[in-house]
Design a protein that fits this description.
It is a single chain. The chain is α/β, with parallel strands linked by helices and 505 residues long. The protein is built from 23 helices and 6 strands. Strands 1, 2, 3, 4, 5 and 6 form a 6-stranded mixed sheet that branches. A hairpin with a 5-residue loop joins strand 4 and strand 5. The longest helix is centred in the N-terminal third of the chain and has 39 residues, at 2-40.
Amino acid sequence: MAIVSSVVSAITQAAALAFVLLLLSGILHASSRVWHQVRSRGVYPVIVHQMNELLDDQEVRKASDNSTDAAPEDENELPRKRLGRTIGATLTAYIAEDVQGIWAVTPGLPNVSTPTIPAETPKSADGWISALFELASSPRPAYHIMTTQLAASSGFRVAVQVSKTPGNSILAARTFACSSIDDLVFEIGGFCVECIQREPRIMRRTPRWIQWNKRSGYATFRRALSKEQIGRADDALELYQDACSKSLGNLTLTLRKASLLEQRREYLSSVHIYRRSHELWPEHIETLYRYAATIANNRIGNIDVAEIHDLLVRKLRRRSIALHWAKTWLPNNRNLGERTYWRSWFRPAMGGCPGFFHGRSKRADYLYAVRVLRQTLIILRVLDGEMSNFSHARPCDTDAQEAFRQVHKILERRRIGWLARYAGACFYSICMQHHDQLIPNVIRSPESFGQLGDRALIQLSMIVRDPHNNLDPAWMSVDPDMAGLRGYYRAKEWAEFFGLNIDCG
């Protein structure tokens, strides 16, 4: 009897211990799953695995041959072996470059195309404790890219599979055949990014105007960027046009194309793209800003710029932005990406605490830039002879002297943002370009050509002091508004000091 009771007691203790271990494992599993969700903030990382190689029948016979004679290595096999060693790191770099947003565009346009999706390489557990913890915890939510090299008579053939954990559900799979490794990386990387971007979890966090379609538009877009970086603008424009036809309505493509056209001084074409983009997505404020700036600074007629400026000011009102933000909570218009977009206007451009804690926000930065742009428009109208007898007209509309005073007053502020300072530098540069007309006829207390140039350089230096500015230094060498400053001898000294390649007269 004692033996039976001891056996029952041992079984009971073992069952209790198993129940406790099962309960602890469940708690650890649930808590780790919640931790992964909080840590990733709803956006899963992309893990690129090393390539698997699938041998054909001939290679299997070679591998099974135990002869001692070592056959010379085929030169055609060297690229395939190099592909297997480098494809993982190359794809990881391809996806990570999209996250960094390194391609700056025309001032005033956003340069972030998609939500942040970090790219990683797989990591193995270090030690038995880590391995036991990973076994008991919930698998980390992530997207996995698996590649397998297939036999090919020429070039490369790679099978790609995109899956998601937990659950190991396959999202997409495809086989690619290309003649070079670079083409293969562009095709596979674009396919994987588009597949992940079309996931419901990501689409809910992406504004409608920058969503991608599964039509290879993203791969073509990245090819266009690579062509633009090496100076092949004609090829880049063709690729941008091809990408626009594959991903209809994507502002990332249209705005980048318009920015390139501005660099090529094809302003009428860029204005046409900005106008069409604004008509398609009237809620996007940055497009309207660049539309107004391009028309005003390049003196394109037949368009009422003042009306566009008034519309831009109305869209930057707190009530208008708050109303658009509130609409994103409606069941039929629920989009976390657009909600974040509208909330960003009340925060500094690079994040941080809300603007009312320190008196500056993205909305305030654009308002200051719009005010400077308005005064630039007044100067350009004076130069075109559209206004006469301005001493008897309203100062806010027609008095060029008042425009100078307003710009000086705005730029004397400390926290106005880099965009307004660049607009101020363009204002002074335009005045330098036409100083022979302005100095004797308009300004009673004239500023010399050199004084205007020094004021413009001060504003550019203030931009350099701002660590969060998004100004592309290369844009200053092609911006038509900077033509007057590029003719100033001190501008060359300033550019050489900062190591900039700016063509100064």
